[in-house]
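Running log. JK asked me to keep both predictions on one page so they can be read side by side. First protein, sequence followed by its tokens:
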Amino acid sequence: MITKVAFYLENRAIPTVDLSEPELGNPGCGGTEFLFAALPYYLAKLGSDYKPVLLANHINKLPVNVEHLQVSDVIEAVQQAKECGCKIFVYRPRRHTEKALLNEIDALKITTVAWAHITPLGEHLRVMSRTQYLKALVCVEHEQHDLARDSAIWRKLTYIVNGFDVEGFRLPAPPTKEPGLVAYLGALLPQKGFHLLAKAWPKILKRCPNARLAVIGTGALYNEDAKLGPWGIADSRYEELYILPYLAGSDGQPLPSVTFLGRLGAEKKEVLYRAMVGIPNPGGQTENCPGSALEFQAAGTAVVSGAFYGLLDTVSDSQTGLLGRSEDDLVTNICKLLNNPERANELGKNGIRFVEHRYNYTAVVAAWSELFTRISKGHAPKRIPSKPNLHQHHKWLIALNRYFQIVFGLFIPWPSVIEIKARLMPALKLFINRGSE
């Protein structure tokens, strides 16, 4: 028996982006938007007991093998899902509490899965845990899952990695690696860490004078109407304070070693294949399963980035790339690979095998199908243990606090470690500021 599953794709801010051919890779938009088109596509292509339906703000550039309907927002999406006979509704939760949506889910009595491309805040997780028909919160990687294990929603928590089609990402005649070429891929926003690479670049040039930087991305990646700065690459304040001071020459233009390529679709593959070193978000902030890291590795390019959050999952340190924790590490690791092309090529080849094994869509579709079957039968999502790296991100404290959450969370709103940190941070900043007066 075929069960219809609705996916809400919020593509309001990217009306011109073509999401009709996921096999070709991300066409130049946020990873979340791309994946909300790609997963339904592969569910339909690979076949299962679950028929996807795409509910989106713009429907003229979506995969043709998936039924789709136009909706204005997530509330209309869940209503349309119920009306068109879908038994399961999948959406992306926001950080802050969405009470109207959660109330509507329970009012419609539609089995719902929250696909957490970002992790909701503690109060939101608490309300989600009490929403009867929200049956699962699916994290996109193991690290993200572990950091939420002591939250109120622990009973509904699981993770499924994002899929990646390595075969579709191949080039018929891939170019050879170019000595000295470093590529950055991602949005030019503060949370994506490009400023960390910009600040490090003059130090990299001192140690590797022949290094060149190709920057793929824009500050308008998530919103085509975003206002950009003098170089037209990022928000004006971000450009002027965090990019120009490090990458501008005496004429005010980008250094000769730096090229800004802007938003690229499938044509970005040639740059990714040519690069000797690939840089996804160096700071790791907001990254749960960074698609840019997967794209570099699928192109056979060694990755250098930070040893934080989702990068700990998506890059195998010393096997497919080099992860560090400081600006000095970033400089050293980039130069280490630029000065040792054989090592860089070895890591790049390992990266292809790594992505093929861990992120292939056959396994990903099977995992989603298993989840749909479990929740359709009234079972909880598959419980997943924490990774053993308890020294990272205070995970030892999360593991301890989880037991208090299980016991006391039934009676009081017991806080998670992430919530405690969020509450303490303003007080800590105030203390530091007063101490410096």
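And the second, directly underneath as requested:
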Amino acid sequence: MAELRKLPLFPLNTVLFPGITLPLHIFEPRYRVMINRCLKLNQPFGVVLIREGQEVGGDAIPYAIGTSAYITHVQPLDGGRMNIQAVGHQRFRVERIEQSKPFLVAWVEAYPLATSSPTETNRLARHIRQALENYVEVLLEATETDLPPSSLPDDNMALANLVASTLPLPAEEKQDLLSAPDLASMLNVEWRLIRRELMLLQYMVSHPPAIEDPDMPFSLN
């Protein structure tokens, strides 16, 4: 059995992936206590998507798969509030939750994304990079804007986490990506999702909404 460790949990309406930064405004007393404790002990906290409940006030039931996060920057504010920046570190799985503190504490085990065949992951990563380039080209043409060139990470796992965090998806779909059993599975789903978004964008560009003439007093219908 994998080794378990205690980890304070921060249930949110967002999904955090390893290597991705997360800005947070800390104002609830229980989470001020939690963040100050993490700072004092130089320990991470766990970010988990809320399955049931609310982000502010009350209790929340989280999904079992989350990502640990280390605090990299703190901006103190009046009244004990603070703005922090954290960065995702490692995927984990919740085994059991304790309610003994003002915030959730869980026993978790490390749940790293399993590696896959390099041939397969490299193939999928190439497809994703090409699809992203096509998406940006169509977007720039549609908006008639000029964006500075950006580079994608060479590491396939970093690419998968970046794509998962930036795709315009519902939180539940992002959670499915975070819960993927292995890297190839995650990349394969992302490739399908990017192609879907590209087809939607291409359709929107080729079928722009009709603009009514403001000087025409009556509808043509």
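Observation for JK regarding the second prediction: The first strand starts at residue 4 and ends at 12.
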